[in-house]
Write a structure and sequence with these properties.
It is a single chain. Helix content is 21%, strand content 31%. By secondary structure, the protein is α+β, with helices and mostly antiparallel strands. The strands form four sheets. Strands 8-9-10-11-13-14 form a six-stranded mixed β-sheet, with no helix packed on it. The protein has a five-stranded mixed β-sheet with strand order 1-2-3-4-5. A four-stranded mixed β-sheet has the order 12-17-16-15. Helix 5 runs antiparallel to helix 7 (208-220). The radius of gyration is 18 Å and the shape is globular.
């Protein structure tokens, strides 16, 4: 398969044994190593072989985890034999895996998608000196998870906590339900100093959670007079609620937003 020139991996070493893998500016995956094993968090878009990139960074036994079932985070599963994903997102993932274009690419290139195995809140991945604790965080999708590395005080949040929270898609929880889920996880956020999410170049200060909760509450409370109608796909529209985070902490960006459907605010 000839890879278009615009598709490439940009790999950034964030600290010893921790790498951000940027797939063509579309989404980010993360590789974290312990003394014994390594874990790849999300597998990106699948156009380029992410396994080849990962094996240049580590030769340790590898566990592959998908934070959720959207294609920009799991189509790279075609490079592996086994991947862990919360089973509540399996149907969502398979809807993309079984798309005619995906099937045609698999047949043309002799690829196959990894077998999926369930992962759920309470699971712990021991990498040796570093662990990853699994927590459910439904909202963006019903099966979204986040992974806490307590030794590094880093939380990997996929698309569930970021500067551009998409709650307008089919299968998202309501804005109110999503807010309540995040509030319910406050004790987990207190164990981290930084967030690494699926569309950020580097670390975000953990206080991003607080500003995101405040913005979600504004929508729930009807403080939406300044919200804009936004097109997020061909003939697909939703509302966009903008908010800002302060400039005195480490954030990927200051201007942030939540996308939502007006009829899916309250539970």
């Amino acid at each position: 398969m000839e890879i278009p020139k615009e598709f490439k991996f940009d790999i950034l070493k964030l600290r010893e044994g921790l790498y951000r893998i940027d797939d063509s500016g579309i989404s980010k995956a993360f590789l974290i190593e312990g003394t014994d094993k390594a874990c790849l968090i999300d597998t990106a878009n699948g156009i380029i072989d992410i396994a080849e990139a990962v094996h240049k960074l580590t030769d340790k036994p590898l566990t592959v985890i998908n934070t959720h079932g959207h294609p920009d985070h799991m189509m790279g599963n075609r490079s592996f034999d086994l991947a862990y994903m919360n089973s509540k997102d399996w149907d969502l993932a398979k809807s993309f895996m079984n798309h005619p274009d995906a099937i045609a690419a698999l047949e043309k290139n002799g690829w196959s998608f990894a077998e999926l195995s369930d992962i759920k809140e309470g699971d712990i991945i021991d990498l040796g000196g570093r662990t990853l604790e699994v927590y459910a965080i439904p909202g963006h999708t019903i099966g979204s998870i986040m992974l806490l590395c307590p030794e590094e005080r880093i939380l990997f949040t996929g698309d569930s906590i970021n500067h551009h929270l998409f709650l307008q898609l089919d299968g998202c929880l309501s804005v109110e339900e999503s807010m309540e889920v995040i509030i319910d996880k406050k004790s987990i956020f207190a164990k981290a100093d930084f967030i690494l999410h699926g569309h950020g170049d580097s670390y975000d200060d953990i206080s991003l959670v607080t500003y995101l909760i405040d913005a979600l509450k504004e929508i729930v409370d009807g403080k939406t007079s300044d919200d804009e109608k936004a097109e997020y796909g061909p003939e697909q529209y939703c509302m966009c609620h903008r908010f800002k985070v302060p400039e005195d902490k480490q954030f990927n960006c200051i201007d942030s937003l939540i996308m939502y459907q007006p009829d899916n605010i309250h539970k």
